[in-house]
Structure formats: structure tokens, C-alpha cells
Amino acid sequence: MHKGKVVAEKGEFKVIDCEVCRFKHLDPIPTEDETTEFYKKKYFDLIKKGGRAPEIRRLMSGGDEASFERKWLESTLYNDIEHILIKNLPKGSKNLCDIGCGTGDFLKYMIGMGWSGIGIEPTEDVGLSCSKSELTIYNRSLEEFIVVYPEYNYAFDAITLLNVLEHVPNPIKFLQITKKFLKPHSGIICVRVPNDFNELQIHAQKKLKKDLWWIGIPDHINYFNIKSLQKLLTSLDFEIIYTATDFPMELFLLMGDKYVENPEVGHICHKRRVNFELSIPDVFRRKIYYNLSKIGIGRDCMVFAKIK
Description:
alpha/beta; Rossmann fold; seven-stranded mixed sheet; 14 helices; 19% strand
């Protein structure tokens, strides 16, 4: 039975700081059947309308916008993930499973860097677009995949969950299934989620007297921050080996750029953030975001962990 302090309300849903799970989530929690149906049939339309997953929407847009987004991600986020994995895996360990692979761009990048791997993507329209790029993409939910393809048990050196865990009804069960795909003792999981209810975000919300704009119903079920994500992984017998956040977008709000209600301002702020990240050396960018993770600020947070 989930219980805890109510930290937000939106329509029929509440967000509680759950004493049982030790992270914030919707109450009531949508069922797994409801969630599976939503991602197979409706999520793609929500992305196209600009309501969710701006990185995926920009990658799907085609043309200069997609090229600009892809260059930035490959030079920063994708580059950093590959760097941390190589640094912490045994030499030659380059077999990857990207769960919730979206457009497949990250998986394609990793294969271009000499990795082998597969992707799992439940959203049908996104999964179909992935298949056109000649990647190995399984258009199934994780729960379906593990039943149909038991040969992938304990097969992967690395598993990535990039902006996935906030969407699943039962993150604990989801991670327990995910563990079964990792090679024992050496495999690494990389989890990236929005860094919600972080101190800077809350300060900006109170200062500007705005609603909690990061609450996204029905698809954002769980609301982690860097601390609660680490606690969850540790409780499941993972050992944390590296943490990072990324650019604290709330700084723009506090400097007067009101991107929350204005997509055009949001686009400008995004380009400024991108230009900043592309203008500094990789080592320096990683140092900044590693240290920001220690004080808990940044729009997204990322944790790398091994099974103990």
C-alpha cells in the first residue's frame, strides 16, 4: 500500500512522496496494461504535438533541427555515456541493450563506436522508424521481451535506460527484470531520468509563483532526483560508480527567460545551452556535471551502477 505526503495535485491524480518506495510517484498509479496501451498507441502523437520528450521530437523532425540535435547529443550526452562505460568495463566489453531506445539514435551512435547491441522500444510508431535504420529493435515491452527472448539473459555488458524509468508503473520490478540481462559482476547499468523536485527547481517555482510545470500526466508516473535514484539502485543491490546531472535549465527562468509558457523562448534557451556545452572541452563538461550532481542540481540526472 503506497502512502506518503502529497506534494502535488493535478486533476484526479496526486503526486506523493512515498514512504514505501522512497521516491515520488503518482497516486493512483496507472496499471501496467494501461501504460502499455498508452505507449503502444498514444505516446507518439503526444511527442509530435510537442507535449513530451523534446529531444525525441527534435530528432524526429528531420532537416536542420534534427541534424543540430543529433550533433549536440553525439558530442555531449552520448559521448559521455560511452566514455564512462569504457572506463569502467573490462577491456573489449562492448555489448549493449538500450531499453526504451526511442528513435534509435543513441544505439546507432554506439554501434558506430564499435559496440554491438539491440534496442527495445514499446512505442509502435517510434519503433517502426527505428527499424528503417537497420538497427536490431524489438518492438515490445520489457515484460514481453524477457519471456519471448530468454537467450538474452545475462548477455549484456551494459544496459541503458535513458529517460525511461519515470514512465513505468513499477520501477522496482522493472529494474529487477533489467538486472537479469546484465553480465554478473561486470555489467553496468546507466539510468537517466528528469531531476525533479530538485532544490533549484523548487526555488524557481516558488520565486516565479508557477504551477509545478514538470508534472506530466499520464506518462510521467515517477519523479526522481539524483538522491532518490541512487537510493533506489542501492536498495536493489547495485553499487554506484558514477553520477552526473546536466545543465540546470531553471537558471534561465531565474534570469527572466520564461520558457515554460513560451515554446519560442524555450527553443532559444535550448540553443544557448547547446552552444555552451559544445564550446567547452569534454573533460571540463564532465567535471562540471559530475560536481553539480553532488549538490543535486541539473535538469536531468544520470547514475551508473554495477551489481554488487
